């Protein structure tokens, strides 16, 4: 049902006010032995020039159209969410599915996440 690289909408709480949320595209970026999926939310706000502190963590999705997204999008590499498979099944409906990352973008995003979080 869910595979690495799948993109779908989920409700994501705001960092500064967890009582508020917004429906955002999310990408399944990895899974662990306990069936947990790690999701990364996306934004359509591109990087500022010069970079602001949050821009450092924005990772472009180069093939956003091929992935099913409707506008240029960036991963918010600082924000990683963990959900169990059962939580995903309870939360995500069929009409929430957007598409799937093309392989080159999936690999690029994983490499960038490793660079950002292992540094």
How would you describe this structure in keywords?
alpha+beta; 119 residues; globular
Description of the structure:
There is one protein chain. This protein is of the alpha+beta class and 119 residues long. It is globular. The protein starts with 5 loop residues before the first strand and ends with a helix. Strand 1 (6-13) and strand 2 (21-31) form a beta hairpin. The protein has a 6-stranded antiparallel beta sheet. The protein has 2 helices and 6 strands. The mean pLDDT is 86.
How much helicity do the residues have? 10-25%
Task: Give the low-confidence spans.
Answer: none
* CA(first)-CA(last) distance: 33 Å
Read across the widest sheet, the strand sequence of neighbours is 4-5-3-2-1-6
Estimated share of beta-strand residues? 35-45%
What is the total tally of β strands? 6
Radius of gyration: 14 Å
Main sheet properties: 6 strands, antiparallel
Apparent shape? globular
Order of helices and strands: EEEEEHEH
Write down the overall mean pLDDT.
Answer: 86
**How many DSSP H or I helices?**
2
